[in-house]
Amino acid sequence: FQFFVAVEREEWKFDTLCDLYDTLTITQAVIFCNTKKKVDWLTDKMRQANFTVSAMHGDMPQKERDEIMAEFRSGSSRVLITTDVWGRGLDVQQVSLVICYDLPNNRELYIHRIGRSGRFGRKGVAINFVKAEDIRVLRDIEQFYSTQIDEMPMNVADLI
């Protein structure tokens, strides 16, 4: 399942994410941001709001990234905020929800991101946070992959 949530302003994405947090932790979730700076910012903001999250991006030493991945794989960490460094070639079976906090800059990255959810025959949900100026990109992705991305239903937790 692929959905979008329309947000009027960038700042509103954070509140939307907080509202979804209980849904995120039903299993495990990955949240994609387009920049390392945004990953750090969002991680700090989530932690300040008393949400438990892990973070990973390319500027971190490999050893630290390996530790974070091990925690995530074991399930002791349930929400991972990351850049597209994570989008390629890493498999975690329990991930059933991917959130694109930022829409990716190109179509190929989109498939790498949403391909992280629902692996191994499990159900997967991808939720895209879109501002008005992102709608065009979203429609382009839909057309390119011959898919339909609908507005997120209220009962999204039932789909995970």
From TrEMBL:
Protein's UniProt keywords contain Transcription: no
GO molecular function: ATP binding; hydrolase activity; RNA binding; RNA helicase activity
Record carries keyword RNA-binding: yes
Top-rank lineage group of the source organism: Eukaryota
Keywords, ordered alphabetically: ATP-binding, Helicase, Hydrolase, Nucleotide-binding, RNA-binding
Protein name from the UniProt record: RNA helicase
Domain called Helicase C-terminal: residue spans: 16-160
EC id: 3.6.4.13
Annotated catalysed reactions: ATP + H2O = ADP + phosphate + H(+)
InterPro entries named in the record: Helicase_C-like (IPR001650), P-loop_NTPase (IPR027417)
